[in-house]
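User: Here's a protein and a ligand (iron/sulfur cluster). What would the complex look like?
Assistant: Let me lay out the input and then the predicted complex.
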Amino acid sequence: MSAPTETRHESRREGSLEAPLRHALDWHNPQFYDEQNLFAELERVFDICHGCRRCFNLCNSFPTLFDAIDASDTLELDGVPKKVYWDVVDHCYLCDMCFMTKCPYVPPHEWNLDFPHLMLRAKAVKFRKGDVRGRDKLLTSTDLVGSLAGIPVVAQVVNAANKLKPVRALLDKTLGVHPEAILPEYHSATLRKRMGSHQPKSAP
Ligand code: SF4
Ligand code: SF4
């Protein structure tokens, strides 16, 4: 749900000929968390995407949607179970690529299509419902994980353990982290610590 707050001319032509215009996420609106209202918007946007399919190769969200439509009895969005909508939402990692580079229907186009903002709204609705797995909470708590795994000595142990196959198999089983996914290395000398003692040079 993105509220049009800008005054730029709303064009009827296909867009992408100028920079996309992003409206603020309307999260103070009481309807923002209304699931029925959310699904009405998901249906509107998914149906436009089904007719366009330009983003088929950007991430796993779009193929999930298009494959489900193609496998449905009706070959249209109305043949897709609502559970698949949540799968589409889960596969979006909010990179913004579809909005910034591909979509011809972003504002100022009158269809006002902002796919990442809609995914963000759906994720917020899901979170408020409490429909969040423990592994999602843990893996997205990067500050917490970083501060624990970044303790001196612990960082070295964690980095070494993350290179061991049995540990990666365990991470796969318990947290759903793919055994071949590249994991970040943890450092105890963080940038914040290094910057704390940094003295800017005075101007000559
Ligand atoms: S913002 Fe989401 S849906 Fe769009 S390309 Fe990125 S991951 Fe895919
Ligand atoms: S986000 Fe835009 S460009 Fe991408 S499939 Fe949907 S309508 Fe097409």
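Summary: The chain has ten helices and no strands.
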